[in-house]
């Protein structure tokens, strides 16, 4: 490393070792910066090259105006990239395809190689096919290998073909938990230079690493690929929201309750595109696991990151998880030398300020379809009764069945029409509301019961968000123990599962003697992976699924995850609630959401009714077991050979060679089409004429709506493609597992079963009006797009607020582009999806403040012309373009926010830009 224009290169002595570091105090103004901006400043100092990063960029960050709106572009070079397999497989497909494209354009294919560590954890492919039995884990893993052998062989090829690329095999853990427990360095040591660990990942919850002081966030797969190839990430110097924590969490509350409160606060405040940084005396009261839980939920409140500075608690966690004493000493010395050590008495300068007294946090849930919709547990029953009215299509009065019950009035009027014959749906009595449709069910084993609206069909301890936190996991196991001792078990209609984020969790369950109690009530280990949180819930028992669908029952799921979007968790479940692991178990015991769980008995025990307060564990007991049951040796053993895998992984046949041999018959891995016909020089940017609307969408359309990850529904274009290629329905697997095959993913774009395209009336699913056909009939979106393509008609999508929220899913942008969509016009965007659209050559436009499709009178039936886009050919970025829709004309803001993004768009996408640069060099 050479000194830069600030002369900041210095030595740091740690024990017997000396490291080169770039001193932040060489830059005027650095001392007042928030922790997160100090990390960015070091990044610029270390990568200054006079071109991408200049002295002016460094000064701009040092002189950061906390109150200014972001306008200054900088280039951020992350130290490493992390991936999971759903997003990682298409990354490797793209890299393999790029090698061929470079070769075909006369370049050196070996240049397509990660320049910094790139690590993948396979955690998204295990599905809960089997549950509630001691062999559930082994059977699910075996089924996972049967379904995904071809994908796993491809990934093993990638591990041998690309330098600096490593794969953590299936059955090991969830990417973000593996990251904070093992992969994260906190401070890097590379070639004798020490610098902050920074990491972007192909999963939006990469921000979990913010809890241990690592700056990073989720990006789309294509942006991650560019970062792997040495392309810096273009960004504006952000606003930073300071979130002050005071006090301590009261007894009976959990990290989940805290994070749902913070999510609600920050979503209401508005932090999209901003950094959030936590400070204050209350930070010291938060265990590292709680900090990681908060960081994990950053995409749910919309911020780029949600970070905690380094302190003694960080060091204790690094020591617990088996990091070397040399590494821990480096982290401490570096953080203190660079002003990155948390000092609660010092308040950095922030753009905006919020504050939370931890003592005011109450037990909570979130649902039924968004993480930010927090519900106090005391109000959960009443809120469910209000919300269920949006999910049950018809009502028939049944006052006689309610005559012996009295219910509080709902906040919303009950629906009063009946469209389903003689099947009673609700009780509507004197303004009271009681959902009701008891359906008799008998399982294969003879178990008989009645299934009703609100019954909990899925109760899952799942996801990186909470399973990384030993306090809530031990609390769940203790609650299970207390329940078993009182004679309780899960209700027979509840599909239960335990899918922790790493093997350490099951280790401390075994050591504490609590595992048998979880097994006793049906929470057997089903896998180490995301499972229910990403829609890998697996099928409900056939009898239950049939009863739900035949009778349109609004059953529920309760999960300890971070996402509960519509259509995500299970196709049979309409209402989904996020909760802490102990509450997941409590609702499995109760079996319904239609219960005041704080006051009503949750079940009948051997000695009479049992209340939640009777089995809720004391915080002192939880802390004592955490202290006695978790040791450093657990982490050392679990991660000793983390990349090795079991015999199944080691026994996979590995294709050889630097170029992949594509199998034309494969339905999992196919050569990507993004570089077909690509020339050495890009074509000029063109205006858009004669475009039709493919979909007109409302607010909070998530990347799950745009590109679902879960099951592939029979009868859809994706299902038809698989069947035409000889794939049986039982082997469809999920959309997520098929992301290496663009033919499946194009057909699955906008195919979520809960998508509501406003071009149609009261229709859910992947449908639109096809204006190429006489009468504009209802059609699958994929089929209509093919008809438009045949006529050479470009497409646009119209949307409301928060378009593209949720997962970092690059296929939401890839599929959009491959369907022929040239532009999206929305009221607002989530950060990652907007960036992904540009990375695929799709123009993101935004309605002016106060305007929307509705205010402008747009129905989606118009033909659109978008002019002014060609100004990009002159080197700049136009502030706005003119949109004409039949007789209406309006201006829309161009959401290409940086010069770097403009370069990507001019090239037709970020990968084309990177590829042309590599060839040019």
Automatic annotation (TrEMBL):
Keywords: 4Fe-4S, Iron, Iron-sulfur, Lyase, Metal-binding, RNA-binding, Tricarboxylic acid cycle. GO terms for biological process: propionate metabolic process, methylcitrate cycle; tricarboxylic acid cycle. GO terms for molecular function: 4 iron, 4 sulfur cluster binding; aconitate hydratase activity; metal ion binding; RNA binding. InterPro entries: AcnA_IRP_Swivel, Acnase/IPM_dHydase_lsu_aba_1/3, Acoase/IPM_deHydtase_lsu_aba, Aconitase/3IPM_dehydase_swvl, Aconitase/IRP2, Aconitase_4Fe-4S_BS, Aconitase_4Fe-4S_dom, AconitaseA/IPMdHydase_ssu_swvl. Its cofactor is [4Fe-4S] cluster. Pfam families: Aconitase (PF00330), Aconitase_C (PF00694). Residues 719-849 form the Aconitase A/isopropylmalate dehydratase small subunit swivel domain. It catalyses: citrate = D-threo-isocitrate. Gene3D superfamilies: 6.10.190.10, Aconitase, domain 3 (3.30.499.10), Aconitase, domain 4 (3.20.19.10). Residues 397-434 are annotated as: Disordered. Its EC number is 4.2.1.3. CDD domains: AcnA_IRP, AcnA_IRP_Swivel. Residues 419-428 have a biased composition (Basic and acidic residues). Residues 64-591 form the Aconitase/3-isopropylmalate dehydratase large subunit alpha/beta/alpha domain. PROSITE patterns: ACONITASE_1, ACONITASE_2. Pathway: Carbohydrate metabolism; tricarboxylic acid cycle; isocitrate from oxaloacetate: step 2/2. Catalyzes the isomerization of citrate to isocitrate via cis-aconitate. NCBIfam families: aconitase_1 (TIGR01341), PRK09277.1 (NF006757), PRK12881.1 (NF009520). Belongs to the aconitase/IPM isomerase family. This is Aconitate hydratase.
